[in-house]
Design a protein that fits this description.
The chain is 31% helix and 31% strand. By secondary structure, the chain is an alpha/beta fold. It has two domains: 9-245, Rossmann fold, CATH 3.40.50; 250-310. The strands form three sheets. Strands 5-6-7-3-8-9 form a six-stranded mixed beta sheet, with helices on both faces. It has a four-stranded antiparallel beta sheet with strand order 4-1-2-14. α8 (240-247) packs across α10.
């Protein structure tokens, strides 16, 4: 595992574990209790102001880690601190210093207009009036929500609701923001707005961001550092380029030609992996730029259109771990 040192650690985990007891049916009217280790001796630090991607297959332990960092869950073992606070012991105190966005769950009140949810946050966090108005105006403008403040949350699109959740998480000026799948299900325009906002937030406020996602573009555009968790264990900590190299991941260039032609003569290591009529698929290393390959094809072939498809994170990790398929079950059994 590639280690990345952090100066002035803001988030600290030292040998953190989380074990759940689950009941499994073993026969008619019979159930046995099993202990499952969802997080297994994880240690890392995140410096104040860092934007870090925290990724892995489904069931790897990402959301469990986030829930321990917020104080929702208590670690079974190990030491965990956020801004010097032990989350599970001082959850209320910590709440004023963190913001959380769960992509598949909302913190907004479903039947109330968006602005009413923000007014409730104003009261709950006891945000000074001037600070609340300043933050609300700034966030609503940046995320283009001005025309939606009087719309009930249930009537918002997924992209609008996600932007609304981000505003709610930031009204009290948290020092750290946990984002769990913040762009899931969003269209291209909404994703671009969310990513640009997060870049600006980090640059202007030095907000620490821990991002979990299955969209590799989120990581590529926002994070200089990525951590990979698999079966509850931290298996990689370093730059995204290093992850691509470890997993030998590939991007795919989809090329539409003006007519059906033999496979494109691509310069190695790029290669044609599929041909269907005038459309061809070329694979090339994810760590390399597509610019040279695109320029050559455009110069030598009757190009109509093209697109680049990013590698799936689970495929990258599975390949990195010697082709094994993981994430089928939450955690792994405790010996």
């Amino acid at each position: 595992m590639d280690a990345v040192g952090a100066v002035d650690p803001f988030i600290e985990l030292d040998g953190v574990e989380k074990v759940f007891e689950v009941r499994r049916k073993t026969g008619f009217m019979r159930r046995e209790r099993h202990r499952v280790r969802a997080v297994d001796s994880i240690s890392f630090t995140v410096a104040r102001g860092e934007m870090v991607g925290y990724i892995g297959p489904n069931g790897a332990g990402k959301s469990t880690t986030i829930k321990m960092l917020t104080g929702i869950l208590t670690p079974s073992a190990g030491r965990l601190r956020v801004a010097g606070i032990e989350p599970s012991r001082e959850r209320t105190r910590l709440a004023h210093r963190i913001g959380v966005v769960f992509g598949q769950r909302t913190t907004l009140w479903w039947d109330l207009p968006l602005i009413d949810s923000y007014r409730l946050m104003h009261r709950m966090y006891r945000i000074p009036d001037a600070r609340y108005r300043e933050n609300l105006d700034r966030l609503v403008e940046l995320l283009e929500l001005g025309s939606l403040l009087d719309v009930p949350v249930r009537q918002l699109s997924l992209g609008q609701r996600m932007r609304g959740d981000i505003v709610a998480a930031l009204l009290h000026d948290p020092e750290v923001l946990y984002l769990d799948e913040p762009t899931i299900g969003l269209d291209v325009v909404s994703k671009a707005k969310v990513r640009e906002f997060l870049r600006q937030l980090n640059a202007e406020r030095a907000t620490t961001v821990l991002l979990t996602t299955h969209d590799l573009q989120d990581i590529e555009q926002l994070c200089s550092r990525v951590m990979v968790i698999d079966h509850g264990r931290l298996v990689y900590d370093g730059a995204l380029a290093g992850l691509h190299e470890s997993g030998e991941s590939e991007r795919t260039l989809v090329v539409d030609l003006a007519r059906e032609l033999p496979p494109i003569d691509a310069p190695p290591p790029a290669r044609v992996v599929r041909v269907e009529g005038p459309r061809q698929w070329l694979a090339f290393p994810a760590s390399e730029s597509a610019a040279g390959l695109v320029a050559r094809i455009a110069a030598e072939y009757p190009l109509v259109d093209l697109s680049v498809r990013e590698p799936d994170i689970e495929a990258v990790i599975a390949k990195m771990l010697h082709g094994d398929s993981h994430g089928k079950e939450v955690g792994r059994p405790v010996p």
